[in-house]
Amino acid sequence: MSPRAPRVYSTRAIVLGQREFVEAAKVITILTPDVGKQDSVAKGVLKPKSRLAGHLEPGTYCDLELAVAKNLDIIREAQTISRFRASQQNLMQLTTLIYVLELVDKYTVDGTGSDLFEPLLVTLERLDRGINLSAVVHGFELTILEITGFRPSLDQCIHCLSSVDSVKANWSQDGGGIVCERCVSVIPDTSLIEPRVLKVLRAYQSWPYEESARIAIDSNLEAQLSRVMHGLMKAFAERDIKSADLLEEISWRNELSNGRGMS
Amino acid sequence: MTFGNQGPILGNTNPYGGSSPINRLVSAFHMLPGIGPRSAQRLAYHVLRSPASEAQELANALLDVKENIILCGSCQNLTIKSPCNLCDDNGRAQDLLCVVEEPLDVVAIERTGDFKGNYHVLHGVIAPRSGVGPEDLKIDELMKRLRSSDNTFKEVILATNPSTEGEATALYLAQLIHSLDLKVTRLARGLPTGSDVEYADIDTLGRALEFRHEI
Ligand SMILES: [Zn+2]
Ligand SMILES: [Zn+2]
């Protein structure tokens, strides 16, 4: 082998996003099980005959071969394992897919997030089945918070750590959890949290998916769950999560037009 | 004039560094999409070598674009007068509207010669990761056109790119337009996933339009 041949490696990856780069190249942001989030370069993908382009769309689960380069590694081969076809046909599913990708992107920096790979993959597979979206997406949100060290406190007061069994509790978005009656005066910006919402969130946080997916969620409850979780995800990411707003807008319009939301 | 070694003139290889006129030009070219630092240098040196009249023409053309190109009040395409020539052409089918991402997509579809309806240019796609939401696109303008009492369109073709964001935008628009009881169609598969309408070859694009399907 010539001493100048680049070092090449293979990896599974989930494409998080892409942006245009120089010439016909794009920078592809991927999540891999070993490295986590990393930017890489795909050359020539804007050309119509590109072999790579179809395998690097956001949300694609693929096998990649990359060559180590001085700055960004270069994608030499790409093969789709799954494009989650069903999710591409339905507005709610596709927007949810875009949302979970944005979450991973906003909750990681380059070189972190390898432990989010398997949970993300499982989430995309469940999402593709198109059922129990509430348990799928909120379960994933809670998993991200758990893994990145922001596990919300749903059983204990965030201030005095006393356990709160009652479902009648106060909620602190910035504190990331519930506040007991005694502490509510010392924690700023609390609001009452719907007992049903707290109950379901506790289940999503601690039950296995197979069980939590069985909980019946009506569209009104789902709207409240989304509002609480989106608020939490934005608060801890410390920036806007644009697709969360889009999801709320779409659910709201679904609701208007046919009186049913996500279930 | 000879420039021999390029290094000393630029001072350093950072195209944003320095404030000499040539560095300023290199930086300006580098800001253009698809232009890397090396291409930016090449363009800057080309300008430097060419006669002053050519440089003047380039400068005039740049300013002319900024001063005289507007968006068509109807289709939102780039134009020098509103309504644009396409919207003004009564020979085009008044019941068919094709929605595209970018002005260059109109050029690509016109090149096929297969489409005789009207257009609407969104100026982008829904791309939350880049901070682009529906409110940043010409969607309100589209819905205003379709809701207007003198709307003649019966079918809306969604010709956004077959990319994740292009599909999401198409599904989003389909939901909005369905509420108006209009037929909504999407370009046929055949345009490869991840490809760009703007770059598609004429035959493929023509076929994708012909075999569009209802969504
Ligand atoms: Zn307390
Ligand atoms: Zn026009």
Write a short abstract of this structure.
The complex is a heterodimer of chains A (263) and B (215). Chain A is built from seven helices and eight strands, in the order βββββαααβββαααα.
What does this structure look like?
The complex is a heterodimer of chains A (263) and B (215). With 263 residues, chain A is of the alpha+beta class. Helix content of chain A is 37%, strand content 21%. In chain A, the strands form two sheets. A five-stranded mixed β-barrel of chain A has the order 1-2-3-5-4. The longest helix of chain A has 19 residues, at 219-237. The mean pLDDT of chain A is 92. Chain B has nine helices and seven strands; from the N terminus they run H-H-H-H-E-E-H-E-H-E-H-E-H-E-H-E. Chain B has helices at residues 7-10, 21-30, 37-49, 52-68, 85-88, 103-112, 139-147, 164-178, 202-210, and strands at residues 70-71, 78-79, 96-100, 118-121, 155-158, 183-186, 213-214. Chain B has a five-stranded mixed β-sheet. Chain B has a two-stranded antiparallel ribbon with strand order 1-2. In chain B, a hairpin with a 6-residue loop joins strand 1 (70-71) and strand 2 (78-79). The A-B interface holds A 16-17, 19-20, 22-24, 45-48, 50, 53-59, 83, 88-91, 94-95, 97-99, 101-102, 105, 240-243, 245-246, 249-250, 253-254, 257 and B 33-36, 39, 126, 128-134, 163-165, 167-168, 171-172, 174-176, 179, 192-196, 199-201, 204. The structure holds zinc ion (2 copies).
Multimeric status of the protein: heterodimer
| Element order of chain B: H for helix, E for strand | HHHHEEHEHEHEHEHE
User: What separation lies between the terminal Cα atoms of chain B?
Assistant: 62 Å
The total count of helices of chain B amounts to 9
CATH topology name of the largest domain in chain A: de novo design (two linked rop proteins)
Could you describe the largest sheet of chain B, including whether it forms a barrel? 5 strands, mixed
The second-level CATH architecture of the largest domain in chain A is Up-down Bundle
Major sheet of chain A: 5 strands, mixed, barrel
